[in-house]
Write a structure and sequence with these properties.
By secondary structure, this protein is α/β, with parallel strands linked by helices. The chain folds into 3 domains: about 80 residues, Arc Repressor Mutant, subunit A (Orthogonal Bundle); about 110 residues, D-Maltodextrin-Binding Protein, domain 2 (3-Layer(aba) Sandwich), CATH 3.40.190.10; about 80 residues, D-Maltodextrin-Binding Protein, domain 2 (3-Layer(aba) Sandwich), CATH 3.40.190. It is about 45% helix and about 20% strand. It is built from 11 helices and 11 strands. The strands form 3 sheets. The protein has a 5-stranded mixed beta sheet. The protein has a 4-stranded mixed beta sheet with strand order 7-10-8-9, with helices on both faces. The longest helix is centred in the first third of the chain and has 29 residues. The termini are far apart. Keywords: DNA-binding, Transcription, Transcription regulation. One of its GO terms (molecular function) is DNA-binding transcription factor activity. This is LysR family transcriptional regulator, glycine cleavage system transcriptional activator. One of its GO terms (biological process) is DNA-templated transcription. InterPro entries: LysR-type_TF_proteobact-type, LysR_HTH_N, LysR_subst-bd, WH-like_DNA-bd_sf, WH_DNA-bd_sf.
Length: about 300
Amino acid sequence: MRSSPVLPPLHALRAFEAVGRLLSFRRAGEELLITQSAVSHHVRTLEEALGTMLFERKGRSIALTAAGARYLDSISQAFALVADGTREIRSYATHQVLTVSLLPSFAANWLVSRLAGFRAAYPQIELVLDPTLNQANLAAGEADIAIRYGVGEWPGLRCELLAAERLLPVLSPELAARQPLAKPDDILSHTLLTSHRPTEWEAWSRHTALDLTSASRLQLTDYNIVLQAALNGQGVAIGRSLLVADHLRRGALLAPLSDFATAPGLGYWAVLPGSGAGKPAAAMFVTWLRREIAEAGSAGMARQNETGR
């Protein structure tokens, strides 16, 4: 590569900047990890290229000439500009955008309140959330990762279980005061709020050996609407433990029947494209989700133990 007819060699400029800042050839050499004589050679080469003296030698001390002081100011600004540009480019290199497809209920009732923690732990990752009831086409690049609720059966995709779901009836304090729910049979006098997943109430029915055929039902589509109806006292919802935990802690919902029901494989899953390594940010997001879910579960158990004392 040809050298510039105008710009001096970079190593000579670095040596000059260090000597001018430190006013010492020895200390400049220590900083640059070269010998003092090499520093002196670079500065002398630079002075010859510029046709002017940059330093005045006074015995064992040195001082910048007027030309040297002006040049040091320009070179220092140039190096600072290069450093700023380098930091900016490195930040772009580590910056990652991660598009996450997820159910609106999971976003609203669990994830959003914890996003500040993720941003603090992974400031280089920009999350783009796409709350939707539709299943994003990961193979077509509609999202980098999906958080889905089900039993992990999505052919052609890589599914990793985040949390197995536990199910229990929940209702508002106002409704509980009007119509107690002290034992499983009491559920038959309530309206059951159901989403597009009737299997949840069926799992609870099997667990309690209680036939719910005669129970009144209100069919709703989105689990967000189910929870809102429960909060408004319109009936009893089948509570997904992960999503109702905050409502239970605040007392907005009650779970008088504390016995959980489960269904084989039912839970929240991280779903990724079946081929390729995927984005590193996706693996970081899954790791964070697992840690947060585990910590939330530990906190919930601690509260239950405290209540039981």
